[in-house]
Amino acid sequence: MIKNDLVNRVTEETGVPRVQASRAVETIIEAMRRSLAGGGRIELRGFGVFL
Question: Is 48 helix (H, G, I), strand (E, B) or coil?
Answer without folding.
Answer: strand
